[in-house]
Design a protein that fits this description.
three-stranded mixed sheet, mainly alpha, three-stranded antiparallel sheet, elongated, single chain, 7% strand, 15 helices, 69% helix
Length: 508
């Protein structure tokens, strides 16, 4: 019994092992076939992908090749055009060289012919002189000496009178010119002074003169102000009396009349009227003389006497500390030099420069800009239209219609911009500083600004919380652009923008 069971157990064991082995073999074969099928599928997919990639690459390569070919064709066309252009230029240069050589040869021939003609003319002149000397039995020097001696004997008295006049006039001109040079040197290189704009100061010998000027119950000062059309300021300032008026001619008349009254010592309404009328006549004569002298010095002739009288009034007018009449005369000389150099009309340029500011003589009495007033004045006195066109554009209110108008504008800039020509007042400096600071403070992020060195530099401090370093740099550029566009100033202005961040902590 036990043996049978063992045999059966062994039989079952071997049969089960064979069956398991067979099943495992079947599963392995099935799995192998599945993997081979999967590998084949993957192989086919890879081949398809590779074929697509190759086709796409071939298409891209063909396209790229076509683009390169087109670019090369364009470059070839450009190179060909450049080569053709260079060839044409070379041909033109060769032709120009041939023409220059031909012209040079012709000039040499003409120079040789001209030299021969000069030699022939000199020979004929020498022969003519010899013939004259032979006929007259006198040499050139002897004939000249005899002629001069004869003329001297005949016009001896006239020559002496003429020489005396020339000597007297020459001394006067030399003295006047020396004074002008001295005054010009003082004006250009002296210290800055406050020019007379609305007031004139008259020196008095003592403080008692102030009481005489005022008079009993102010009778004298009221009469003087009414007749002269000015305002007298008699204050505690020692040794001076101030004359105030917008009209510079009235101030000059009042100054001369007051000085003569002080010198006379008898100050009363009748005397005041007499001295003011006398001063008016003398100033009117001076104005006419100054206008005539300015026109004569500049070579601008045939001007109407009324126009010369208005021109002379500019001698009592200043602009930025510069005498307007002297400025106009200086401009006329500069304009004449420029016009002669560039081939323009010298007379028109001089006249336009001399009369360019004539409107300033009456601009406090007539409405309008001094350019428009000046145009109306010149039209009233029948001045040449070319002169009006030359003067009306010096502030660019009218377009430049002639070369002379450009010359007058350039001469105005040269005369006004030369060293020492003009002086700024304290008010102008303060105005410039205020404008600079106001412009800088108008930008966002600016905490405060300070204009320094009479407006040559402005330092700006910005808020670090509102602006970064890059924005601060951009702000400096924007301010510089605004200053260039909106403000008028000579030279350059330095703009410094400062951005500072501080962190503070306390350890306790």
């Amino acid at each position: 019994m036990p043996t049978t069971v063992l045999i059966l157990f062994l039989l079952v064991f071997f049969v089960g092992g064979a069956a398991g082995y067979y099943l495992r073999l079947l599963l392995a074969l099935q799995k192998r076939n599945s993997m081979e099928l999967e590998i084949k599928k993957m192989t086919l997919a890879a081949k398809e992908t590779a074929r697509n990639i190759i086709e796409e690459s071939e298409r891209k390569a063909a396209k790229k090749e076509e683009e390169i070919k087109q670019a090369e064709e364009k470059k070839e066309a450009i190179f060909q055009k450049t080569e053709d252009r260079l060839i044409r230029k070379e041909e033109i240069l060769d032709q120009r060289q041939i023409n220059i050589d031909q012209e040079e040869g012709e000039l040499k021939k003409k120079n040789e012919e001209a030299e021969k003609l000069r030699e022939e003319a000199a020979r004929q002149k020498k022969e003519s002189r010899k013939n004259l000397e032979r006929v007259a039995s006198l040499s050139v020097e002897e004939a000249k000496a005899e002629l001069l001696e004869s003329v001297e004997r005949q016009y001896q008295e006239d020559l002496i009178t003429r020489l005396r006049k020339l000597e007297s006039a020459g001394l006067a001109q030399i003295e006047t010119k020396a004074k002008d040079i001295l005054l010009n040197a003082i004006q250009r290189f002296g210290n800055s002074v406050a020019p007379e704009v609305l007031t004139t100061v008259v020196a008095i010998p003592n403080e008692d003169a102030k009481g005489k000027i005022i008079g009993k119950e102010g009778r004298n000062i009221r009469s003087f102000e009414k007749m002269a059309g000015v305002e007298l300021i008699v204050d505690d300032t020692p040794g001076v009396v101030t004359i105030s008026a917008f009209d510079p001619v009235r101030r000059r008349i009042a100054k001369q009349a007051l000085e003569s009254l002080i010198a006379d010592g008898r100050i009363q309404p009748a005397k005041i009227e007499s001295h003011i009328e006398k001063a008016k006549k003398e100033i009117s004569k001076t104005i006419q003389q100054k206008g005539e002298a300015a026109a004569f010095e500049c070579g601008v002739l045939n001007l109407h006497p009324g126009l010369l009288a208005i021109l002379g009034r500019l001698a009592f007018r200043t602009s930025y500390g510069q005498n307007v009449l002297q400025h106009s005369v200086e401009m006329a000389h500069i304009a004449g030099i420029i016009a002669s150099e560039v081939g323009a009309d010298v007379q028109v340029a001089r006249a336009g420069a001399l009369l360019h500011d004539i409107g300033k003589a009456v601009d406090h009495e007539v409405q309008g800009t001094h350019v428009e007033i000046g145009r109306r004045i010149l039209q009233k006195f029948g001045v040449n239209k070319a002169v009006i066109q030359a003067m009306q554009s010096h502030h660019e209110e009218y377009p430049y219609e002639t070369p002379e108008s450009v010359i007058v504008q350039v001469a105005d800039a040269i005369s006004g911009g030369r060293p020492g020509a003009r002086k700024d007042s304290a008010e102008n400096y303060l105005k410039r500083l205020t404008e600079l600071e106001a412009l800088a403070n108008s930008f966002t992020g600016v905490e405060r600004s300070y204009a320094l060195q009479a407006g040559r530099e402005i330092r700006i401090f910005v808020s670090p919380e509102n602006l970064s370093d890059l924005e601060a740099q951009h702000l400096a550029r924007e301010i510089a652009i605004r200053v260039e566009e909106e403000l008028k100033y000579p030279g350059e202005i330095k703009i410094s923008v400062t951005r500072e961040t501080r962190y503070i902590e306390y350890a306790r």
